[in-house]
Design goal:
By secondary structure, this protein is α/β, with parallel strands linked by helices. The protein is built from 21 helices and 26 strands. Helix 10 runs parallel beside helix 14 and helix 19 crosses helix 20. It is elongated, with a radius of gyration of 29 Å.
Length: 637
């Protein structure tokens, strides 16, 4: 048996205009009384016995539940004079099971209660409190957790000036052991769980645990909050936030992506959040992405920072985000490092683990914990470790130009998308990507296994972005899709000829792909190209099956003769020339390859020896797309 107690004795003074003489538990929530929604939600998650503690207008609640089947046994208890939330439960403790849930009578929720109870059991806690971040932590009562999940302190608002705390708020849903409440029978009343009893229990040594969840729970105790909850029901927010539904997530690296890259950060004051990051995180929150930070922090293994001190650093980050209404749904960090033998290190943390990126241990943990769908999720980071981890776990990667900007060169892996900074990455995910998907829907619907897709067009016109969209969407449909940029075959500067053909080893690319082009499966050893150093590097391996779809993208993709009998689809990407010119110049300057004046000269040279020839590929294409036009809402050319 799983038992719950609903605290339903309040008058609902703030909701009086919506109650029309009814008690608060019977307030209409989009056509269904709140109490009915609560009872059915409890029953749906395995609760079969419910006590409803009533007071004001108890006879109306009794008449409502009498003779009705809610999927669970329902018993009403009149709690007499107001005793507060904790006092009401303590007064009827002899009726209750050894373990029970406590639900507040003014909340709408859809929580995986079996999951919460399992976490409570695993922790061996006296009580487990549902916690979540919110968009106004500075004026909220906050809960401090140890890395184990044990509650260490309750911090009531107002907080001391300059105090930086983790953004975790008591969501008012608990799992409680009756034995933990027994010693508190005579606790003075009225008393409240959050403000009185739980803090007292913590001081006395009780084991209180925090269960952090993104799932939906909202207090609807005022007209404005009620209207917001009804809106969430009608537009699907409540249903989409259920842990039973696969979630879309954006995994985010920390150093160099969210904050300035400043070596090993061991003090909160050293963490400087990059411009635009809080607003970008809030956009992800508002778009219903689960925002999960996954970060390697060998500073702990180096002995320069403890787990507790690292939490203070992350508190700084969460405080900066919270000041602009943004929050992280979860943070996972790896404290290990594989290289040992340094003064001051923590030897127990010096080993090759499964959680340090590019290993996927932390991703796997987050995916299981939050029911994340990798096909609908993203990874934003600044290193090849981030990109390789994303590839291994099956999420789309976005490389940002901040921090390392991919120049660490540790792993031969290419990003699915590239963005100038985290804000641009979020605009790509939230704004640009859906527009492109909508524009290429007819193309996607026609692609079949084993096809070759060629994506060509001028430099910086959006070919890589379009390729990333095609790859992600086709994979989400269960197809085996690989992509290759012809930039892998750019020749070292000393080996180049003239014109666009002279810059690429097209014959080498054709020879490498010949087996697959002729209809077989093959495994390739690929070259790579370091764009900042203009040198050939190792490019890793790629396995293509006979049924693989291969997307080849690059400036000369439509100009080369690809010897194949495979069905071939040709896409030409064009764009607004003024915008493309700006992107070309900015790219050369950002990579340190030219001054602004020199970059203008390089652009003009490329216009003379490349663009006319490349634009000839337009006549060979099946589809012409302008990503600039798509994004700006103009007609696709």
């Amino acid at each position: 048996m799983t038992q719950a107690v609903i605290l339903a004795g309040g008058k609902g003074t703030r909701l009086a205009e919506r109650l029309n003489g009814r008690p608060k538990p019977l307030v209409d929530v989009d056509g269904i009384p709140l109490l009915e929604r609560q009872l059915r939600a409890l029953a749906a998650h395995g609760v079969d016995d419910v006590f409803v503690l009533v007071n004001h207008a108890a006879e109306q609640i009794e008449a409502f539940v009498s003779g009705r089947d809610f999927g669970c046994k329902v018993r009403l208890v009149h709690d007499g004079e107001p005793k507060g939330t904790a006092g009401a439960v303590l007064a009827c403790i002899d009726m209750l099971a050894e373990r029970f849930l406590i639900v507040y009578g003014d909340t709408l929720f859809d929580i995986d209660l079996e999951h919460m109870i399992a976490a409570h059991e695993m922790a061996g806690a006296d009580a487990t409190l549902l916690l979540h971040p919110n968009d106004h932590p500075a004026d909220s009562d906050l809960v401090e957790l140890a890395s184990s999940g044990a509650i260490q302190a309750f911090h009531s608002y107002p907080h001391a000036p300059g105090r930086e705390l983790r953004n975790l708020v008591n969501a008012a849903l608990y799992v409680v052991e009756r034995s933990a409440l027994e010693p508190w029978r005579s606790f003075s009343t009225p008393c409240d769980f959050a403000k009185d009893l739980f803090p007292a229990m913590l001081v006395s040594g009780a084991h209180l645990n925090g269960f952090v969840s993104f799932e939906y729970i909202k207090d609807l105790g005022t007209p404005s909050r009620l209207d917001k909850v009804v809106g969430h029901l009608r537009n699907g927010v409540v249903a989409r936030a259920s842990r039973s539904k696969p979630q879309s997530a954006v995994f985010i690296d920390r150093d160099g992506t969210l904050n300035a890259l400043k070596g090993y950060i061991s003090r909160p004051e050293d963490l400087v959040v990059l411009p635009g990051v809080p607003a970008a995180v809030k956009r992800l929150n508002d778009a219903e992405y689960r925002v999960v930070m996954i970060t390697n922090q060998p500073v702990v293994a180096r002995g320069e920072c403890t787990d507790e001190e690292l939490q203070q650093i992350h508190n700084r980050l969460e405080s900066v985000l919270g000041a602009e209404g943004a929050y992280l749904d979860a943070t996972f960090y790896c404290p290990h490092h594989p290289d040992a033998g340094f003064p001051g290190e923590v030897t127990s943390l010096k080993f090759a683990c499964e959680c340090r990126k590019p290993s996927t241990g932390l991703f796997v943990k987050a995916i299981a914990m939050m029911n994340i769908d990798p096909c609908r999720s993203w990874m934003v980071g600044d290193t090849t470790s981030d990109l390789l981890a994303a590839e291994r776990v099956g999420v789309s990667s976005v490389l940002v130009a901040t921090g390392e900007g991919g120049a660490d060169g540790k792993y031969p892996v290419a990003p699915d998308f590239v963005a100038h900074d985290f804000g641009a990455a979020v605009r790509l995910i939230v704004d640009v990507y859906p527009l492109i998907v909508n524009a290429v829907g007819s193309v996607l619907s026609k692609v079949a296994p084993g096809e070759l897709i060629l994506v060509g067009g001028p430099a910086r016109s959006g070919k890589t972005t379009l390729t990333g969209v095609l790859k992600r969407e086709l994979r989400s449909r269960g197809l085996n899709v690989q992509s290759l940029s012809l930039d892998r075959w750019i020749l070292p500067e000393a080996d180049r000829g003239t014109g666009v053909y002279g810059r690429y080893g097209i014959a080498e690319a054709q020879a490498s792909l010949l087996g697959w082009l002729e209809g077989s499966g093959c495994e390739l050893s690929l070259p790579g190209y370091d764009r900042s150093k203009r040198l050939r590097v190792e490019g890793g391996n790629l396995k293509l099956s006979k049924e693989s779809i291969l997307i080849l993208e690059g400036v000369p993709a439509l100009l080369a003769d690809w010897p194949t009998a495979r069905s071939t689809r040709r896409l030409y990407v064009t764009g607004d020339e003024d915008a493309r010119r700006t992107r070309v110049i900015d790219d050369l300057v950002d990579r340190g390859l030219a001054t602004p004046q020199q970059a203008v000269g390089i652009y003009n040279e490329r216009q003379a020896d490349e663009v006319e020839l490349v634009e000839a590929g337009r006549s060979f294409s099946d589809v012409v797309l302008s990503l600039d036009a798509i994004v700006s809402g103009r007609k696709i050319s």
